[in-house]
Write a structure and sequence with these properties.
single chain, five-stranded mixed beta sheet, mainly alpha, Diaminopimelate Epimerase, Chain A, domain 1, flat
Length: 504
């Protein structure tokens, strides 16, 4: 029996059930072709609720929102700053691209879902067709396993014949919930129920029920996607009912389980890129500062070595001035000491004189002497203040003098150390040159030795040849000796015969 209808009815979905499972209903044709879902997403068991899907409002163009001002970073004087700016702008462009790419007319998913761990094996007996719409149940059951493999969810299709007691969508939702509880013994099943209308030529009401473990995958967005695919394929007269359910479940599984790059992922990527850039920039900055300090230190060292200490060091001039000022202040202190001592002696003198005048009965003289003594006592107070001040200044000047002397000694020691270091470096450099020259000499010597060995070999060969030639010459000489002796004997014999013949 063919399924009814080729177009949608235009009703919105309804339903719901206050239990640990999620359920809802749907009328073909009520889905939007551009679902975005996720607004009522719930990853745990919820208390039910129907599928009240409204077409989403058109989204504003994302180009303007995610755009960026030009020349934000172009005025940076630092190459590092320019690099960071370019990377940030690149990251923003990538982010905008991904956001714009999500704004298309096809069914999409915005949530990354994980396959549930279903402890129950796939059940092939997952179809109940009271209407005779499904041409080949075994084929469809086999095809639905793909949905199970991708999501971990057991699918179940129930095509129910017309029931006059079920007059409202809510009653049908309640029936689907009850039927799940009575006929399915696990919480890992996605139940789809089609309710036939009294007029069999009309498209009936459709309901779904999520097991408690299913909602983490078949969330509100996934249900939106499922209804959209079902609307698309149900009204396609070229498809059989087996094809409709096969394509609906396959397309849904493929879409909702696809790992897509979300805005959060892009933000994470941007943060990682920026973090890496900051770290690299920090390392470059530290290295540049270290190089700069080393360069400045080397320059300072060169200046110290080039400039004589007795001419360049102002501390020696300061030391001379401090010595002079210290000597003057010490002299003032000694002068103050002397004044105090002299004043005290005068006070003692006039005190004794006044006492002696009183003893002699000269009270007027005693009075005059006492007045003089008091004058010296008044001067003594001023002299002692001057004495304290000059001694304090003298102590400060001595401290300054000692500090300058210590600073000069430190600088001289530092200069001597630098000179020693430079001298060692130059000596090492000289040694390196000598060693390098020795290596060259060694190479030349080795070449000479090779030629020497070759020459010796040639000499040995020539000597051997000469020896061979000498041996041959000795044998030839010996042969000639005996040959020549024979010739001489023949001559003597002939000479004797000739003498005998002549009678000599």
């Amino acid at each position: 029996m063919p399924r009814p209808g080729t177009s949608g009815g235009g009703h919105r979905s309804s339903g719901g059930h206050p239990s640990g499972r999620v359920g809802g209903g749907h009328h073909v044709g009520s889905s939007s072709r551009r679902p975005t879902g996720g607004s009522s997403f719930n990853r745990g068991p919820s208390f039910g609720g129907g599928y009240h899907h409204e077409p989403p409002p058109p989204r504003p163009p994302r180009r303007g929102y995610y755009g960026y001002r030009r020349n934000t970073y172009t005025h940076s004087s630092s190459g590092l700053g320019t690099l960071i700016a370019c990377i940030i702008i690149f990251a923003i462009i990538i982010f905008s691209f991904f956001m714009i790419s999500n704004d298309h007319s096809d069914v999409t998913s915005t949530i990354n879902r994980e396959k549930i761990e279903n402890p129950v094996a796939y059940d092939n007996n997952c179809i109940k067709d009271e209407l005779g719409y499904i041409e080949n149940q075994s084929k469809l059951s086999k095809n639905l396993k793909n949905f199970y493999n991708k999501t971990g969810i057991q699918p179940y299709i129930y095509l129910k014949s017309y029931d006059e007691s079920l007059t409202s969508d809510n009653q049908k939702d309640e029936y689907a919930q009850t039927w799940y509880s009575e006929n399915i013994d696990n919480e890992d099943t996605f139940l789809f129920v089609y309710f036939e209308e009294q007029n069999s030529n009309e498209i009936g009401y459709m309901a779904y029920v999520n097991g408690k473990q299913v909602t983490s995958v078949m969330d509100s967005e996934a249900i939106d996607i499922f209804w959209n695919y079902l609307d698309r394929y149900w009204t396609d007269s070229s498809l059989s009912t087996v094809d409709v359910f096969t394509k609906t479940f396959d397309s849904t599984a493929k879409t909702i389980m696809k790992k897509s790059t979300t805005s959060k992922d892009i933000i994470k990527i941007i943060c990682i890129i920026v973090g890496i850039v900051i770290v690299i920039g920090g390392i470059i900055y530290i290295l540049r500062m270290k190089f700069k300090r080393d360069k400045e230190k080397a320059k300072e060292t060169i200046e110290i070595l080039k400039t004589p200490l007795d001419k360049s060091d102002d501390l020696r001039e300061d030391l001379a001035e401090v010595k002079k000022e210290t000597a003057n202040i010490i002299a003032d202190a000694k002068s103050a000491d002397r004044q105090v001592k002299e004043c005290e002696e005068e006070i003692t003198k006039y005190t004794t004189a006044a006492q002696n005048a009183l003893k002699a009965g000269n009270e007027d003289d005693a009075r005059t002497l006492i007045a003089k003594k008091q004058q010296y006592e008044s001067n003594l107070v001023s002299y002692k203040k001057t004495q304290e001040l000059t001694h304090a200044n003298a102590d400060k000047m001595r401290q300054m003098h000692d500090k300058l002397v210590n600073d000069i000694e430190t600088l001289e020691a530092r200069r001597d150390a630098i000179k020693a270091t430079v001298a060692s470096a130059k000596a090492q450099e000289h040694i390196n040159k000598i060693v390098s020259g020795g290596d060259k000499a060694k190479s030349s010597m080795e070449s000479f030795e090779r030629y020497e060995k070759k020459a010796e070999k040639m000499l040995d060969a020539a000597t051997a040849e000469a020896e061979l030639n000498a041996h041959t010459s000795a044998a030839s000489t010996l042969a000639d000796k005996y040959t020549s002796n024979g010739s001489d004997a023949s001559v003597e014999d002939e000479l004797a015969a000739m003498k005998a013949k002549l009678g000599l």
